[in-house]
Write a structure and sequence with these properties.
The protein is mostly helical. It is built from 14 helices and no strands. It starts with 39 loop residues before the first helix and ends in a 13-residue tail after the last helix. 43% of the residues are buried. The chain binds fe (ii) ion (FE2) (2 copies).
Length: 352
């Protein structure tokens, strides 16, 4: 496959003709015009993301600080391990989104990616805020260094960074697609057993400030998921030749791998010892999410046994301040052909 070129910061021979614009390799002058742009969804998404702005340290954490030592040992361990992984996910997004943005030739889409990166900074700061205000300094140090002593965490980190770095070192269309799908899976699957763990604490009226922060973070992650769903759909529409049957199969495999990793991680951090969050529920929940994500990008469900949400209370928590959209309910253009007789009416859209 060819090598993709980093776009020019300013392209004087470009055009403002919207019909000519493309996500990759387009002729944009590279001036940001929200009132005159091809990808109108990006303008709407940018406004929504911007309206979600929040400041982590405005949420009081004193009660969580008092409660943390009263949590069970299993809850404390899961709290620390979950934060260690989420810190990694949000930190890496801050940097890697900039890499992807260098190749996007639609300024309004670049604006969304850069706005997302800003919110990922807020998320990383939120975890830092929790670790400086809720737990003691030794625990904070241990969480930031956990990857050094926890081979499972390290292997997850390596897997994700390898996928991103493949595009950095060899920016081919194939690696672009895989990097974009990796972003989509990070936003749509990797956060979710961690979120469910915090909501399981919330159901017991534990760690209310942490839960409030997580709800705000998940509200943002839904906009990021929508952004990458749009990008994947757009890339496929504009470059059907890139999306060969082999690539589509690779994408399905990526989803399956992400699901397997997230189930393994979720079960590892909770050890089947968190009230309301059994190994079986984690397994079913993450497979259900895998089906939703596959559907959103035009693939048939990977897990026919997991078409129902097994923990509706997770979405009840996540729905705080959410702005419902019909984004995930819109039909996927080629789904009917690909999915045949499968029953998508049983898959509920996520609460975004
Ligand atoms: Fe984030
Ligand atoms: Fe995100």
């Amino acid at each position: 496959m060819a090598t993709l070129e980093i776009k020019s910061l300013f392209n004087p021979s470009g055009t403002r003709d919207l019909r000519a614009q493309r996500l990759i390799g387009g002729p944009s002058v590279n001036l940001l015009e929200f009132a005159h742009c091809k990808y109108s969804w990006a303008e709407q998404l940018y406004r929504k993301m911007r309206s979600f702005f929040w400041i982590p340290d405005e949420i009081p954490s004193a009660e969580d600080k008092q409660q943390f030592p009263t949590l069970t040992v299993a809850e404390q361990e899961a709290y620390k391990k979950t934060l260690a992984f989420l810190i990694f996910l949000d930190s890496i997004q801050v940097d890697n989104l900039g890499v992807l943005a260098q190749y996007i030739t639609a300024p309004e889409v670049t604006a969304c990616i850069k706005t997302q990166a800003f919110f990922e900074t807020i998320h990383a700061q939120s975890y830092d805020y929790l670790l400086t205000s809720v737990v003691d300094s030794l625990t904070r140090e241990a969480v930031y260094d956990l990857w050094r002593n926890d081979p499972r965490l390290l292997s997850r980190i390596r897997f994700i960074t390898d996928q991103y770095e493949a595009f950095i070192w060899e920016p081919s269309p194939e690696h672009l697609i895989k990097s974009v799908v990796a972003n989509f899976l990070l936003e749509g699957i990797y956060f979710y057993s961690g979120f469910a763990f915090f909501y399981a604490l919330g159901r017991q009226d534990k760690m209310g400030s942490t839960v409030s922060l997580i709800r705000l973070i998940q509200r943002d992650e839904n906009t990021h998921l929508a952004l990458f769903t749009h990008i994947i759909r757009g890339l496929r529409e504009e470059n059907p030749q890139w999306f060969t049957p082999d690539i589509m199969e690779s994408i399905a495999e990526m989803i399956n791998t992400a699901v397997e990793h997230e189930i393994g991680w979720g079960q590892y951090i909770t050890h089947n010892q968190i009230l309301g969050l059994s190994d079986t529920l984690i397994d079913h929940y993450i497979r259900y999410l895998g089906n939703l994500r596959a559907y959103a990008i035009g693939l048939p469900p990977l897990y026919p046994e997991a078409t129902q949400h097994p923990m509706a209370w997770v979405d009840d928590f996540a729905a705080m301040n959410s702005t419902k959209t019909d984004f995930f309910e819109r039909p996927v253009t080629n789904y009917r052909k690909a999915g045949g007789s499968l029953h998508f009416d049983r898959l509920k859209p996520p609460g975004v």
